[in-house]
Amino acid sequence: MRELFGDATRGGAWAAVRLLVDGQRIVRADAPGLARDLAGLTLLEAAAVGGETLAVEALASAIGPAVAAPPDERRVAVAMSGGVDSAVALLAAGPHAVGVTLRLWVDPQAPRAERACCSPAAVIEARATCHALGRPHVTLDLREEFRRAVVEPFVQGYASGETPNPCVRCNGAFRFDALLAFADRIGAARLATGHYARIVRRDGELYLARAADRAKDQSYMLATLDRAALARLWFPLGDQTKAETRARAAAAGLAAAGRPESQEACFLGGGDYRAFLARAGLRSAPGELVDEAGARLGAHEGFWRFTPGQRRGLGVSAREPLYALATDAVANRVVVGPRRALARRRVSVRGRVERAVTRVDAQLRHRSAAVPASVEPTPAGFELRLDEPAYGVAPGQTAVLYERDAVVGAGVITGAAAG
Description:
- The chain is α+β, with helices and mostly antiparallel strands.
- It has helices at residues 43-46, 53-63, 84-93, 120-132, 143-159, 166-185, 219-222, 242-251, 273-279; strands at 2-10, 13-22, 25-30, 72-79, 97-103, 137-141, 188-192, 198-202, 205-209, 233-234, 287-290, 296-300, 323-328, 333-337, 344-353, 359-363, 371-378, 381-390, 398-403, 406-417.
- The protein has 4 domains: 1-51, no CATH class; 69-268, Rossmann fold, CATH 3.40.50.620; 283-341, Roll (SH3 type barrels), CATH 2.30.30.280; 343-417, Elongation Factor Tu (Ef-tu), domain 3 (Beta Barrel).
- The strands form 5 sheets. Strands 15-18-17-16-19-20 form a 6-stranded antiparallel barrel. A 5-stranded parallel beta sheet has the order 6-5-4-7-10, with helices on both faces.
- A hairpin with a 7-residue loop joins strand 16 and strand 17.
């Protein structure tokens, strides 16, 4: 026998749940505010019980760290964000689905922290979707782990003069590692998410691939996923459009059908990353804006406020538009120049190539168009020789290699050159 306790508070109100558990079965429950008595249920069954919002949150707090179940080939763990995409993924997963939401750290001073995909409000919405369909929902509180694994490297990257992409770090490692570990714990054969991506087979091997809806494709953000995990992953939305997703949610009567998109870099809560970095400890310090020859053109308040390709905020007037070309973290210096000076044809990457390819389409930034390129292995990863110049290539960003829509390599950009 063991005792599980969970509580929740909001707006001055407080609720608590105390469970006496034998293995995974609840023997006795002190849980006011729930829709039914929990005695006799397993922890997984109890995760489908609704009731007053605060009482259900307290129950989730008690159950989350302890719930487990034996393997069941029919069971599917479904990552739930509270939005329409994960809601439709839950529908697709069927009656044996188990929803799981990761509670992640969000900047408390962000302007729209409550709308982040990992905020308390999003957890409540995700749980409500699951309960409306009679499915269990489990919350995993990983706020501190997320800070260490994703937020702190983001801050450190900017402090060292890089332009990191925290969403790639989160989706490519942290998030799926946690979700797959949870799937193992509850005996789920597969993990489904609402990402717009596909899994394809090439020469007998599984690869991540672009979604059918190119406007919503998220394969770039997932590109560093361990390919060994693909056999257990399922992206139910990969072959449909966003419009079809919303239509299916509406037809099922789900409240998520009309919910707006969540912003990227969820921990920023819709805020400017520079303001967040300042709150995170990066200090303003006067430095020089110089041209390519080193001549002083102006001043700035911190190199980390600039990234290659940036035009706005330079504060320098010239005969032609100027862009940030590079930053020097040691000297606190920003080099600026005309757009043509941003052109890069060679890119060095620390990462991996999954197939013996020599020609790829290389995407060097989220939302940027892929560029045809030759790829050559190097001791640290690979080097790209682009068929046409790319602009705004930034160390710390992710380079993703595609062969006929399949992801065949990915890594972190370490440098770029014009020739």
